[in-house]
Amino acid sequence: MFMTNPIKITLCCTFLFFSSINVLQSKPFESTYQPLPAEKILITNASIYDGDGNEFKNTDVLVQDGKIIAIGEDLPVPEDFTIIDATGKWVTPGIIDIHSHMGVYPAPGVRTSSDGNEATSPVTADVWAEHSMWVQDPQYALALTGGVTAFHVLPGSANLIGGRGVTVKNLQRTTINSMKFPDAPHSLKMACGENPKRVYGNRGQAPSTRMGNAAGYRKSWIQAEGYLRKLTEYEEKSAEAKELEYAPRRDLEMETLAGVLKGEILVHNHCYRADEMATMIDIAKEFNYKITAFHHGVEAYKIADLLADNGICGALWADWWGFKHEAYDMVQANIAIVDQARNGTGCAIVHSDDAIGIQHLNQEASKSLAAGRRAGFDISEARAMKWITSNPAKAAGIYDQTGSLQVGKNADIVVWSKNPFSVYALAEKVFIDGAMAYNRGTDLLPASDFDIGIISPTKNRTQE
Amino acid sequence: MKKDWLKIYLVSIFGYALIAFSVNAQTIVIKNATIYDGLNNSPFVGNILIDQNKIKKISTSNLQADLVIDASDKIVTPGFIATDTQIGIVEIGALSVTRDDSSNMYKIGFSIFNGFNPNSTLIPWNRSNGITSAITLPNNTSSPIGGLGSFFVLDSKLDVTGTSDMVMIGEFGGSSSKSRAEQFSMIEDLLVLASSLSKSDINSDLELSSLIDEWAISNAMDLHPRDLRALYKLVNENLPLIIKSHRASDLLKLIELKEKFNLNIVIMGAQEASLVAAKLAEHNIPLIFDPMNNIPESFDELASNIQMASKLEEAGIQMMFTVSRSHNYHLIRQGAGVAVANGLSYEAAIRSLTSTPAKVFGIEDRGVIESGKIADLIIWEADPLEPSSMPEYVFINGENIDLTTRSSRLRDRYTKKLDKPVIYRD
Question: Nearest-CA residue of chain A relative to B95?
C-alpha cells in the first residue's frame, strides 16, 4: 500500500508538471464551447435521412447527455424523456456549411466590420479568420432557422494564401472561443485565379497573372519546407544540444504552412477552372500536402475523376454563374457529376458562401439532385443529403463528432416539417448537442445584441 | 431483307413528315393541362388551343389541332416575367467589355435598349428555366432618379421584340456620398422641372438646351435634352418609376412624392415594407423584392423578414419578385416557393410571376392564359415553385422553343460519348 504511494505521487506530480508546462506554452484560442443544458429527448416515428446515405421510415431517435444514444423502430419510451412526435415529419443531421463568411463579413455589410480579406499582401498565412469574426452577427440565427448547426468560416479570396479558417458551432456566444467547435482542425484558405491576380495586379505587384499565382504558392511552400526542416532538426536534437541553442524563432506565417505540411491543417482551395485545379493538385504533390476541398469549382465536372482519384471534395454551388469569366461554364449537374465520379467515390458538397443561401442548403441540394437525375444519374435523396451533412463534416474534420445520425455522435439534429428536398419544408426544431436551439413558432430564437431594440426599443429586430 | 428496307424507308418518310408537320404546325392544343391562368381563378383542368402566336381558345371540351400535346397531370402557367434583370446587357459581371448597363453621359434619359444582345447566353438559360420575357434595367446613374429600362421577349430573335424605355429607375436611401435628405430635394427639384415642361418643349433640343441652362438643378447636374425628355414622360405619361428603397421612413417619403407629382411608383427592395404595409396598400404602390432576402444588409434594411410576402398579401399589396444575385433570374421561382412556405398563398405567388408584372408595367398581351393573349406558356414537369422542377415545354409567341442551352451542351459534353476526346464530342 505504502509502496505504491510514491508512484502515485510521482505520476500525479509528473502530470501536474506537464500540465503546468502546458499552461505556460498553452495554445492560445482553444475552444471553450459549452453546450446548452442537455435535454432528454425521444423523437418518434420520423422519416430519416441519416446523412450517411441511408433512409429510414417510422424510426425513433433517442437523445441524452448531448449524444444520440439509440436509433431504431419502436424504441421503448424511457421515463422523464420529452417526446417529440415526428409523424409525417423528416429528421436529418444538422446542416453544415463548409463555406461561410458569416462573422467576417457580417450584416450589416458595412466597411467597419468588413474583415474577411487581409488584402495587403498576397500571402497572409499568419491571419486567422476567428480573429475577425464578429460574434454579434445577426446572420447566425437566420442560418439556424435553416437547420445549420455548424459552419466553417474562411478568409476571403483576395490572397493566394488568405489565412486560417475556423469551424464553429452555430450557437451564438459572447466570445469567439466559446463558439469554436471543440477539436476541429484549422483550415488554410488558398485562392486561385482571377481574384488574387486582379487585386495585386491592379497595384502593379505580383501576382498579376495565373503563372504569377502558381509561382506565389510554390515560393511559399519552399519557405515552409525550409522552416519545417529547421524545426524538425531542432526537435530531433538531444536535450543537451537543445540547451546550447535557442529554438527556431516562431513565425506565424510559417507555423500555419508547416501545419499543412504536417497534415494538421486542412487546405480549402478557392478555384473555379478545371485546368487550375489540376495545377493546384500538382503543386500539392510537389510539396506533399493534401487538398481537402476545392471551393466554388464551377468547372469541377470537367475533372471529376481527377478529384475522386485524389480524394479531393468539390464544395460547390448548385447554380451560381456568370459573375466572372472563370464562372462562365456552369453546369447544374456539377455537384452530381463530382459525386458520381469513379463509381460514386467522389466527394460532393453543397456550400453557400452566402448568408441567404446558407438558410436554404436543403433546396440547393434539391436543385443539384434534380439536375443530376436529369443528366442520367441514379442518385437517392438519402445520398444527396450527404452533400450538406457528412461530406462537409468530413471536409471540416469533425465527422467523428457530427455530420450524421449515429449512436455516440453529437445530437445535432433537425426536425423538418416536410421532406427537406421540397421548397416548402421548414426546419421546425433544431438541436445542437442534444439541446433545442431553435423551435419554430415559439420565441425560442436566438437574438444577437445587434437585434435588440434596434428598430423599436421594446422589441427585437425580428419581432414585429 | 427487302421488306426491312421498305420498313426503314417508310419509317423515315413518316418520321420526316412528322417533323415537317410539327415545325409547320399551324395550331397546337395543350390537352388536359392543370391551368394556373395567372388571374384570380382557381386552377382548372382544360385544353388550350394555340393558333399562330396567340391563345385562341381555352376549353374543357376537346379541341382539334395539328399538334396535340398531352399535359395530363402537368401544370401549365403563363410564361414567367422577370422584372429586375440585366439580361442582354451584362454577359459576364466582372468583364466590363461585356457590359452595357451604364452611362457616363446621360443621367436620366440613358436607355439600354440599343445595347441589348439577343444572343446572350442568359436568354436560353433563363428561358429553359421558365422566364419567357424580362424587364432589363440599367445600373443606377449618379442621379437619384434616372436610367431607362426596356421590356424584352426572350425569343433570341435578332430582330428584337420588346418595348423600349418603358420604365425609369431610381434609388433613395442610405448612401456613402449623399444624405437622403439631399437626394429627396434633388428628386423634388427634378420633378418640379419636369412638371414645367410642355409638349412643345420636348420636341425641340434647342428649347430643352436653353431650359437646362435656366434651371439650377439641370444646370448643376449637367443634364442633356434626352434627360429632360425622360423626365417629361415620367410626370406626364405615367412612365413607371422603379425606385430602390428600403427604410420604412423612406417608403413614406416616396408615398409623399407619388401623391405630390402623381407618379406611377413601384418600390424595389422595400425590405422594411411590412412596417408600412397598410400605407403602401392605401396608395396602391406595387413592390418588387427578393422574398428570400431576410438579411439586414444595411441600416436601411433592419426589418428584413422572411415572412414579408405573406404580410404584404394580407395588406393587399401587389408584389413581384427579384433575386439577390445575377444571371439566374429564374430563381424568382424558388423565391416564390420560399414565400409560400412562409405563408404566401400559392395563387398570389403565381400571379407575382405572371399577371402582376404584366398589369403593373402595361405588358397587356402577356402574363395570363386567356383567349386573345399572346401564347407565352410553360408546361411544367412538376410544381413550378419547386426549384428542382423544370419546364418540359416553353412556348414564346406560340412557338415551341428548343430548351437546349450552352450549359446543357457542356453537361452532355462531359457525361456522354466519353470514348471520344472531349474536343470532338458534341
Answer: A324
Dmax over CA atoms of chain B, in Å, equals 91
Residue A320 falls within a domain, yes or no?
A: yes
Whether residue A455 is contained in a domain is answered as no
Per-residue pLDDT of chain A (464 residues; tens, 9 = 90+): 333 343 333 333 333 333 333 444 578 999 999 999 999 999 999 999 999 999 999 999 999 999 999 999 999 999 999 999 999 999 999 999 999 999 999 999 999 999 999 999 999 999 999 999 999 999 999 999 999 999 999 999 999 999 999 999 999 999 999 999 999 999 999 999 999 999 999 999 999 999 999 999 999 999 999 999 999 999 999 999 999 999 999 999 999 999 999 999 999 999 999 999 999 999 999 999 999 999 999 999 999 999 999 999 999 999 999 999 999 999 999 999 999 999 999 999 999 999 999 999 999 999 999 999 999 999 999 999 999 999 999 999 999 999 999 999 999 999 999 999 999 999 999 999 999 999 999 999 999 999 999 999 999 998 75
Beginning with the edge strand found earlier in the chain, give each strand of the sheet holding A161-169 in spatial order: A95-100, A148-153, A161-169, A187-191, A266-271, A291-296, A313-316, A348-350
**Cell numbers describing residue A136:** 454579434
Residue B7 resides in a domain: no
Answer yes or no: is B65 within a domain. no
**Is residue B16 classed exposed, middle or buried when 0-12, 13-18 and 19+ CB atoms within 10 A define those classes?**
exposed
Q: Over the range B55-71, which residues count as b (16 or more CB within 10 Å of their CB) and which as e?
A: bbbbeeeebebebbbeb
What's the alpha-carbon Rg for chain A, to the nearest Å?
A: 24
Q: What CATH number is given to the structural domain containing B173?
A: 3.20.20.140
> For residue A366, what is the nearest residue in chain B, using CA coordinates?
B388
- Residues 6 or more apart whose CB falls under 8 angstroms from that of A361 comprise A95, A97, A146, A147, A148, A350, A352, A388
At A367, list the grid cell. 436543385
Is B1 inside a domain boundary? no
CATH of the domain at A345: 3.20.20.140
User: Inter-chain contact B325–A464, Cβ cutoff 8 Å?
Assistant: no
Chain B residues touching A352 at Cβ < 8 A: none
Q: Could you say which residues from 331 to 360 on chain B have a Cβ atom under 8 Å away from some Cβ of chain A?
A: 331, 334, 337-338, 340-342
Residues A356, B324: C-beta atoms closer than 8 Å:
yes
What domain range includes position B254? 80-367
Judged by CB atoms closer than 8 Å, whether chains meet at A422 and B302 is answered as no
Its domain, for residue A259, covers 94-403
For chain B, how many structural domains are there in total? 1
In a domain, B383, yes or no: no
How many Cβ contacts (< 8 angstroms) between chains A and B? Answer: 125
User: Quick one: how far is CA B100 from the chain centroid?
Assistant: 18
> Quick check: A425 and A90 in contact, CB under 8 A?
yes
What's the CA gap between A352 and A398, in Å, rounded?
19
Task: Report strand pairing: B391-396 vs B399-400.
Answer: antiparallel
Question: A408 touching B, CB under 8 A?
Answer: no
**ipTM value:** 0.93
